[in-house]
Amino acid sequence: MSGRGREKGRMKIQRMVDDKKRHTALKRRLPVLTKKAGELAGLCDVPVCLIVYPPNEAKPVVWPSRRVAADVVRQYRGLPHLDRSRNKLDSLDFAKEINDKLRAKLCKVQLQRREAEIKIVIADFVAGRRDRFDDLPIDFFVSVGMKVQEKLQAITARLQEIRSASVLPEDVQTSEPLAVMQPLSPLPMVATLVPRHDVTMTPLMLEPPPAQHDGRTIMTLDGEPRHGSYLFEVLDAFNDPGDGSALPSTEEMHAIFPQAGIFSPPLPNPSFDP
Question: Which InterPro entries does the record associate with it (predicted)?
């Protein structure tokens, strides 16, 4: 579609205020209107006439001729009143149609304004800028109450939806068990050793690092110094009856502890005297 055609589609239909432009548009569009009337009569095979009364002219413009137009008018007047008024649109009906559209638009704007005013009142109450509603008109007060109830119902419904299981997607709510992947087998650990000497002559010996201690004798499970099991050997030697009556005294226990590797005195610090 050309730019001119798109401009016609967006054109607002209303009366031209300038008389000169209105007269020029009538002369330009009247031939187009008569052409469309002829196409309608030929395509639909219906009687069509066109009568236009241009301003500042004594005679009307009649199409296709006065005789055909008179026959069409006579045929139209012979119809019943219900049939004549079914699709009739005169100036009064056109004005009523425009008025109804404007009223509907006005009602829509008023409704939007009322909604905005209600939101402002509720926002002021929540923010602490308003602590009472008795200064509002009765109808506006009722509208505010209805809006508050509507919001509370929406919040309650949303909370119930969140607490219920219906909030989950449909693809999650399935009765089939989820597939569990088998654990992967550990990868073989391969290390490459590069010896610094001939391994055929001297075997490679791996020794643990020396243990760190604080200077006291460490109790071990085997080897010297003696570990804690030596204490049980000594106690068993004292307890020959087996009933605990011949256990050593406190002084004897203090003498046994150093032998068992318990409470041994700290080792002297090495000196590096020159």
Answer: SRF-like_MADS-box, TF_MADSbox, TF_MADSbox_sf
Place of tokens 């256990």: 247
Low-confidence ranges of the chain (pLDDT < 50): 1-3, 5-6, 172-181, 183-184, 186-207, 213, 215-228, 272-274
pLDDT in tens, 88-142: 778 888 889 899 999 999 999 999 999 999 999 999 988 989 888 888 899 998 9
Contacting residues for 30 by C-beta, under 8 A, at least 6 apart: 52, 54, 61
Q: Residue 49: CB partners within 8 Å, gap ≥ 6?
A: 37, 62, 63, 64, 68, 69, 72, 73
DSSP-derived pairing of the beta strands 50-52 and 61-63: antiparallel
Q: Which amino acid is at 16?
A: M
Task: Give the span between the Cα atoms of 154 and 118, in whole angstroms.
Answer: 17
Q: Exposed, middle or buried: residue 30 (CB in 10 Å: 0-12, 13-18, 19+)?
A: middle
